[in-house]
Amino acid sequence: MLQIYLLCAIxxxxxxxxxxxxxxxxxxxYRTTHYFHVTHQPYLRMLRSKGLLGEYxxxxxxxxxxxxxxxxxxxxxxxxxxxTTEIDVLMIHDSGIYVFESKNYSGWxxxxxxxxxxTQSLPQGRKSVKNHFLNPIMQNKLHIKYLKxxxxxxxxxxxxxxxxxxxxxxxxxxxxxxxxxxxxxxRYVLExxxxxxxxxxxxLSAEEIKAIYDLLYPYSQAPETLKEEHxxxxxxxxxxxxxxxxxxxxxxxxxxxxxxxxxxxxVTQEDVKVCPKCGKPMLLRTSRRGQHAGExxxxxxxxxxxxxxxxxxxxxxK
Length: 318
What we know:
DNA binding; 2 domains; 4-stranded mixed sheet; NERD domain-containing protein; transmembrane helix; DNA topoisomerase activity; about 325 residues; transmembrane; alpha+beta
């Protein structure tokens, strides 16, 4: 019995020693990367942070891209209203400036180009949990707007907008009308960037790349107080803009079609909300038959493709 105990203790010791060596080796390799030299983020903190890990994995996917490329991370560019806009990953390349908005999310992602708030749906038993985040397309447009202001001395710059999601998530019914905007899972980014670079060709010289890098680098060294204030402002923008406040009544063809189907004379803002499952408008309807006849409920206008419904008081029906 004592021998078995000693053997188990030896195996456990070997396991933890081996794990420690692996972590130490990975940490030493990590400290040689350009990501660490710019962000100064410790290895274990990077692994524990979903956002930082997504940025690092984006960098790992792109660091061997062909041509002359330099990277910056977490740039906090000032805006007119004393707030900031944060660029997750920026690559200055021969073919222009690539702006990457990184969303290291799992689950199902719903959203449209014109919605201010998108939805992440995570399975939880037979139900799902809905989380909301700002539209990454709009975020990147804002990033590029301020980049153009700070880089006005470089009129030849071509800007490329990329929205990257984790390989663990599924992008559901996301429409983009702008042919230049790219939204994808992270594993496709290197191939897409190479294709864009071949299409555009050389627009920046090595001297211009260095000059832009030196100009923007200070914005990647923001103090923690500024970062905390930025996160606070982002949360304040998300909370009051849950999807049910994002629909416009007038001119929305889906709402008008749903109105005609229900025979309603008019539809007000109180009669409309957004389906958390597919992002389409939901209308407040009245059950006409069955044991629930006369009761109010929210029904998705995407029926029969989307069958999501809620009771009038907001509780999901079984």
